[in-house]
Amino acid sequence: MTLRFDRLDLNLLRVLLEIDRARSVTDAGRRLALSQPATSNALARLREAFGDPLFVRGAGGLTPTALAERIVPAAARHLEALEAALTGAEVFDPSESVVEWRLSLSDLGEAVFLPRIVEAVLREAPHTRFVNVGVPAERVADALARREVGLAIGMMDPGQAGVRSKLLFSEHYVVLGSQDAPPAWRTRRGFGDARLVLASPAATYHRGVADALERHGLADRVAVRARHYASVPDLVVERRLAAIVPSMFARMACQRSRRLAMWPLPLKMPPYEVRMVWHAASDADAAQGWLRERVLKLFGRERARTHAR
Q1: Fold held by 173-264
Q2: Span 100-133, pLDDT tens digits
Q3: Angle subtended at Cα 158 by Cα 232 and Cα 133, rounded to the nearest 5 degrees
Q4: What is the DSSP pairing of strand 129-132 with strand 100-104?
Q5: SS in 3 state form for 134-176?
């Protein structure tokens, strides 16, 4: 007889395992809080399903047949694994994990955050891998919900359904230029004579800088609108240009080239918040929680607030 597994009541497997342990229908029923007739009926259904007696009476109680000896260990392993998955807390072992971390970072975020994240994570989880997807800001919530990415970092709006966030730090804009830029560019009046570079990466761009230049009547001073930050240092060091950039990027650029200088932006412009965001569905994901802890430890310079909608 061929077993129709799709018709097998999997609850019967628990009866099978208890009879094998107790070698008694009565004792197995007691352990399962079943009556003796109910347990006997379950054994009868198992015998019919498998086309085998499964247990036969002997001097010391029930003795499993060859088929029972083959299927009991397999059933026990799978039921124990299912029970652990449903009732046990997920465990993440960074030293053994081969998880692929899927992040969403702009080109600026890739330059500022990714090297430090990779260094810190691979130190503890050497077999894991990274992919930066770089999802546009308006698609981040959807990408998180679809598990296209597990974590995004940048100038993110946390007020979207199902999205959680933690504030990492507040950032502000400064001016990046060459060491020999005119000193007058450091003043409000003289800054109006500078030709400007703006970078607007699609993944995290917001209108703050452009709107501020409009308010101050300096929108026509923008000479270059770059898509990425990578070209900005070369643009300002080789030409008579100045760039408005986040202070973290300016510090990195100045560390790499002594020909560059940074100074306070002589315009009123509010700071902005840099957050890490993830989907509520990954709250209990042990691996993602471990990664968020590392990111917060690396970049959390202010008291973090958690938002859930």
Answers
A1: D-Maltodextrin-Binding Protein; domain 2 (3.40.190)
A2: 999 999 888 998 999 999 999 999 999 999 999 9
A3: 50
A4: parallel
A5: CCCHHHHHHHHHCCCCCEEEECCCCCCCCEEEEEEEEECEEEE
**b/e burial code for range 254-268 (CB count within 10 A of at least 16 → b):** beeeeebbbbebbbe
User: Rounded to an integer, what distance in angstroms lies between the CA atom of residue 173 and that of residue 177?
Assistant: 13
What CATH number does domain 5-87 carry, 1.20.1300.10, 3.40.50.620, 1.10.10.10, 3.20.20.60? 1.10.10.10
113 near 161, Cβ under 8 Å?
no
Give per-10-residue mean pLDDT for the chain (309 aa). 63 89 89 90 91 88 91 83 66 90 92 95 96 87 87 81 89 94 93 90 58 88 90 89 94 94 92 91 90 95 44
The alpha carbon dihedral of 140, 151, 248, 267 has a sign of positive
Q: Look up the CATH number of domain 100-170+272-308.
A: 3.40.190.10
Count the neighbouring beta carbons within 10 Å of the beta carbon of residue 286. Answer: 14
How far apart are the C-alpha atoms of 117 and 228, rounded to whole Å?
Answer: 21
End-to-end CA distance of the chain: 55
- Of 225, 216, 219, residue with least CA distance to 189: 216
Task: Write down the residue that tokens 């919900």 correspond to.
Answer: 145
Report the percent of the chain where pLDDT is more than 90: 52
Mean per-residue pLDDT over the chain, rounded? 86
* Contact (CB, 8 A) for 120 and 294: yes
